[in-house]
UniProtKB/TrEMBL annotation:
Protein origin, superkingdom: Bacteria
UniProt name for this protein: YaeQ family protein
Organism per entry: Candidatus Methylobacter titanis
InterPro entries reported for this sequence: Restrct_endonuc-II-like, YaeQ, YaeQ_sf
SMART domains noted in UniProt: YaeQ
Length: 178
């Protein structure tokens, strides 16, 4: 019998002063059986940094043809494709050809060697941004993981503050390629 995803709910109150975006989002996030909570929270962080009414989680790990998150236009064009982790060049090339903008979020602290090897290959994609979420940053999110989360998010000058009723995390994403 196959393992099923664990469902998490996140009520996010987002105040993004950098983009002038102030909006609540009630999110349902499926934690795939092979996914860690750190990766799930990195996906949630990617969502809040790029929050938009049309941004949505996809099937992600269980589907090769879809990113972790995407934003589609009313005509079904992919405006934003968000990847997580350390994908190969082929996957980034595919994303860059299908979407107007691609953002890759790396996380976990083991990605420097990968980045040094793949950077020259990725620099040719003009619609690609690579952002690193430092291990210390994603570790701050661990105490906030609950099946039902109430989160307040503030973004200003590229810095992200996330808090719940007991914890606060301050995250400064590192732009590796823009």
């Amino acid at each position: 019998m196959a393992l099923k995803s664990t469902i998490y709910k996140a009520d996010c109150q987002i105040a993004d002063m950098d983009r002038g975006y102030y909006h609540p989002h009630n999110l349902t996030i499926a934690l795939h059986p092979s996914e860690t909570e750190e990766r799930m929270m990195a996906r949630l962080l990617a969502f809040v940094i790029n929050a938009h009414e049309q941004l949505q989680f996809t099937k992600g790990l269980s589907t090769d043809d879809e990113p972790e998150l995407w934003q589609k236009s009313l005509t079904d064009d992919i405006e934003l494709w968000i990847e997580m982790g350390m994908p190969d060049e082929k996957r980034i090339r595919k994303a860059s050809s299908r979407a107007d903008k691609v953002i890759l979020y790396t996380y976990g602290g083991r990605n420097t060697v990968w980045w040094n090897q793949i950077k020259p290959k990725l620099e040719r994609f003009k619609n690609l941004t690579v952002i690193n979420l430092p291990k210390e940053a994603t570790d701050q999110l661990a105490p906030m993981v609950k099946r039902t989360m109430q989160l307040q998010i503030s973004i200003q000058d590229g810095q992200v503050w996330i808090s719940d009723d007991q914890n606060t995390a301050t995250i400064m994403p590192e732009v590796w390629l823009s």
